[in-house]
Amino acid sequence: MEEKKTFYITTPIYYPNDKLHIGHSYCTVACDCMARYKRMLGYDTYFLTGTDEHGLKIQRSAEAAGVDPQTYVDNIVEGIQKLWKVLEISNNDFIRTTQERHVKTVQKIFRRLYDQGDIYKGSYEGWYCTPCESFWTESQLVDGNCPDCGRPVERAKEECYFLRLSKYQDWILNHFKEHPDFLLPASRANEMVKNFIEPGLEDLCVSRTTFTWGIPVEFDPGHVVYVWVDALTNYITALGWDTEDDSLYQKYWPADIHFVGKDIVRFHTIIWPIILHMLGLPLPKQVLGHGLLNLNGGKMSKSKGNVVDPVQLIERYGVDAIRYYLLREMPFGADGNFTNEALVARINMDLANDLGNLVQRTVAMISKYFDGVMPAPTAPEDVDKALIDEALKLSETYCREMDQMHFSTALAEVFHMISSCNRYIDQTAPWVLAKDPEKKERLGTVLYNLAECIRRVALCLVPVMVNTPAKIFAALGAEGESATWTRMDEWGILPAGVRVTVGAALFPRLDPKAEEEALEALLPKKEETWEIAPAKEEIDIETFGKLDLRVATVAAAEKVKKADKLLQLTLKLGNETRTVVSGIAKAYTPEEMVGRQVILVYNLKPAKLRGIESQGMILCASDPVTGKLSLLAPVDAMHDGAEVS
Asked: What's the whole-number mean pLDDT along residues 77-105?
């Protein structure tokens, strides 16, 4: 028996430091779609994802949380794995860089490269971006900040080991030239060559000594392996490379596709290939650098308060709608834009109106006009031939785009087929045919053609949607070969005589206004900031100690004539009564003030206001945004005259 073709696809392993948002989910959903597609075509497919758990950023975050780094990452990784289950990700393995199977192999790789002279000891002084775990030269900084994330960098100076990237500059440049499809899209390859390789590769610092959360360099325990060297090797450590059981490595390496975000392309197409070349191993066949999914044009960020929680979206709309939106909305290689309006529109227009309505109408007409039994087709007419011809070409156009991970374009082809089916209904008017008994066979042919097209559409949606295709097959009575890809290129596989089932709408139509309001409410509330008044002249503790504050009760209150803002208050302090004029009339009525306790500046020199001697001042707070006044008072009732200290 001929052995199946293999296919190995990887996501980057995720850095477990921030809550995953819908933008992070795109990459894993895209890889899952490709893995499901290849399995559908009969490939022996291996899909790897995981978490990159070492580095200074993790150590600092753990310290801030008051836990050890392992506990910190364990908690976050559990959440990541739960999210992948909610998204129904079909990964074969989940690699963690803290696992012993990874740690031991990384140490062997480091030792081997050191022994053969590709790693050497030295000292490093330069700039380091902790959030990106990246080293930068002075010339690479942008306005003094990290060129990738734009955040401040810090000066690093320490003993370390270096990787001889410079030795392999010509080799990696030739690889790019000889393999134009190694990195796609082409714009990313051009960026790597022009911005990083041709200006000259510098040797890379590949160990750290200023923190401890990393894989120890086995022969020099004061050093830990640089996080990116640690992380990149997961693609072969997960396969058991250089272990007693390397069967997975022998079967699946080299990887067919590394699917990574554009912000980490440099590591995957320069550093990683050079490490593999040093080890004498084959390079991955292709790296695809995808864009970022932004929110209303801006990058999603927990610090900006614009993170969209994928779990909340799935709970509201279902996993299939969210997976479809992610894959349909992201153009290949370019940034996508998540908006509430676009999500609701995709669900309503594509899934409810086009797909859902087509399935519902077709099955309902078969149920109504043929007692729920699939009719047998007769000789096609010209209008049928046009539809059938498009349906037969669908697999070719669909596979051409899917093979390149052009998911948005592939789905556009599928929904063009759906639009053609809806147009075919208008052209053939089955409801009119049903009125003429002599056209019963013609009606059956029309409905069969629609059902067969829908079957093919459902097959194309199998990699994208995890539940909907099965519902469509069940509605059509499709099973066995008619519900598999094996005979996609043939027409008329759906057998006549099977019973159809009218079920609930696949995707109920949404109220756009209500949904957009609900989605807006799901976003984290942004923390407001505002400018406060500048500080007054500093005083020392002795000066402050001269201030005498007392609790007093308002015994009487009245407005000051010809003064809109002033109230005249009579205050009781035990056996003493005082009169105070206060500018609170806009915030409090005289009736509201009587009986309240207030804080009085007891030793303030008396002053005349509107002819009334004011014997002190009561304290209020003024909101810096609204300007609203609020009286200061003791939380619990106090005896009048009590001192405030």
From this structure: 95
* Residue in this structure with the two tokens 């013609």, named with its chain if needed: 442
Q: What is the pLDDT of residues 260-293, one digit of tens each?
A: 989 899 999 999 999 999 999 999 999 999 988 7
Whether the per-residue pLDDT at 320 is higher than 80: the answer is: yes
pTM attached to this predicted model: 0.79
Return the CATH number of 343-518, one of 1.10.760.10, 3.30.565.10, 3.50.50.60, 1.10.730.10: 1.10.730.10
| Separation CA 52–CA 47 (nearest Å) | 17
- Give the closest residue to 51 by CA, choosing from 7, 88, 9, 20: 20
Which DSSP string corresponds to 153-171?
A: -EEEEEEEEEE--GGGHHH
Cα 457 from chain centre: 28
| Cα 362 from Cα 502, distance rounded (Å) | 9
Task: Indicate where the chain has its CATH 3.40.50.620 domain(s).
Answer: 6-290
Quickly count: other Cβ atoms within 10 Å of residue 477's Cβ: 22
Closest by CA position to 238, among listed 100, 413, 353, 378: 100
Q: Contact, 209 vs 195, CB < 8 A?
A: no
Rounded Cα distance between 294 and 338, Å, is 6
Strand partners, 569: 557, 580
Beta bridge partners, 256, equal none
Residue 640 in contact with residue 552, Cβ under 8 Å? yes
